[in-house]
Amino acid sequence: MALCLDFAWTVRKSQHKLNPEMHMSDLRDSIKWKSFLVGLAIAMLAIFVRSVFRVAEPKGGFHSALANNEVVFMVLEGVMLVIALLALTILHSGICFDGQWNKTKWAFRKSLDMEMSLISEILDGQAKARQIDDA
């Protein structure tokens, strides 16, 4: 949570460094972006509540009242996960970026292409090895 806040502060502090060609300023002012941030905060808080419960649960041992209370367990375990899941699914970052992701110069596609070419080279090498073994 501290790293998330640090990142948000750094981004907010350096708004002037955004690439104007990518319309990132427009994106950051949009309701989709703000909704995404709200969803991310909701998911983070739900997971935090669940984690606190999971740490406190075994404090009194496996026979304590907290460890054996099924209603509390269902709410603080299952419901928190459902809330986080729904927040991250409904307010997904792919929706909020509104096609801007493809305009970035992030190298995921290049590395994926490199991985695919390595896989094809490995498969070609395995096929050649089988041909040699068969001969």
From TrEMBL:
The chain crosses the membrane at residues 33-53, 73-97. The keyword Transmembrane applies. It is found in: Membrane. One of its GO terms (cellular component) is plasma membrane. Pfam families: RTA1. It comes from the Eukaryota. This is Uncharacterized protein. It comes from Penicillium nalgiovense. The lineage of its organism: Eukaryota, Fungi, Dikarya, Ascomycota, Pezizomycotina.
